[in-house]
Design goal:
By secondary structure, the chain is mainly alpha-helical. The chain has one domain. It contains four helices and no strands.
Length: about 110
């Protein structure tokens, strides 16, 4: 009886898998033409957002600086930096426009 209880409490040895470990392939590098097209689109959107904010007198200085940086990055064909700066410029311009909904502080 004692022998039966002692064998029932032991855990079996884990089964070792013989499957080969397969590494996930790295994602393909982004298509430079697609990135360049996205950069042009983001820059155009940023230009439009900045113009709208300026027309309503809601343009923030940081939004303008980001647009200038996006233009400079586009001039040297740095698509990733163009997208990054243009996205920030658009975001800040839209925040400036949203700020108009709040009352002025005296």
């Amino acid at each position: 009886m004692l022998g039966l209880l002692s064998t029932g409490c032991t855990t079996p040895d884990p089964v070792k898998s013989t499957e080969p470990i397969v590494a996930n392939p790295a994602p393909p590098p982004p298509d430079s033409a697609a990135l360049e097209q996205e950069a042009r689109a983001m820059l155009a959107q940023a230009e439009t957002d900045i113009q709208r904010a300026r027309a309503k007198r809601a343009l923030w200085l940081k939004a303008w600086e980001s647009l200038v940086q996006a233009r400079q990055a586009a001039a040297v064909k740095d698509s990733a930096a163009t997208v990054r700066h243009a996205r920030k410029a658009s975001e800040l311009a839209l925040l400036g426009l949203e700020q108009l909904a709040y009352p002025a502080v005296n």
